[in-house]
Amino acid sequence: MNLTKKTLFLAVLLLFFPIYANSISANNAVSFVTQENHFLFEDEDYQLPVVEITHEGKKYWVIPILSGNTLVTFFPVKSEAKELSLSKPLNRQLFKTADTLRSLSVEKERISKNQQVDWLFASNYVLIFEELSRGLENEIFEMNIIESTLNNADVSSQVNRMNSSLSAMSLKSGGLTQSITEAIAAEAAFASAPDALSAAKLKDEFDDAFEELWMLQQRIIWFPLQTRLQNSTILAGMLPMP
Q1: Which residue segment(s) compose the domain that 51 sits in?
Q2: So which domain of life are we looking at (predicted)?
């Protein structure tokens, strides 16, 4: 390594070394709270944070404190030094983000233990609703064949109504597919780099997906009754005249 390259290397090393030297680990932060300062009561325990929470460019280890299974509070430790954050407005934001992070983890763990329930925001559900959307479009195609074959005004009217419902469900399925895809991306972004903005984004994406799911469910619940009523007209059109 020549002198110029060596000088540049040392300059870069000196530039970044203080950042890494002063940064503390999650275990260091927990030790600061539990062993060095003994902030916990006898019946309290902690959860080791798995990722730092960022606020206005600074990182914090926000440690959940539990009494049994009940969340008691959080201790926010600055990542660049063993020091608690004492700003109430800042801590409110940190605690809100940390609570979202913990609630997400608890809910996913709860669902993972239930064999009857799956986490909605997963790639397999993207495929499921994509296939549902395509299947509904195929139903429309088949209904159009029936309409053209029978060539009956009453049947055409009923087929058009059913096709309208099928088309609406197909669109909702497609919309739900997109909402789940966006929610998956928001969850990944929040889990890897949680902050107030990514927490708000996650909530919005989850809310959008659940709303799309609810609207699709309402159409699916109503559709069988509509189908029975309209099928009677279609079947009547298929019967030979006396």
Answers
A1: 9-96
A2: Archaea
Whole-angstrom Cα distance, residue 55 to residue 194?
9
Instruction: Tell the burial category of 240 from Cβ atoms under 10 Å away from its Cβ (0-12, 13-18, 19+).
Output: exposed
pLDDT at 3: 43
Residue 115 has pLDDT above 90, yes or no: no
Q: What are phi and psi of 25, to 5 degrees?
A: -85, 170
Q: Give the pairing type, strands 58-67 and 70-78.
A: antiparallel
- The domain total for the chain is 2
pLDDT for res 224: 54
Q: Are residues 176 and 228 in the same domain?
A: yes
Same domain assignment for residues 79 and 133: no
Residue 171 lies in a domain: yes
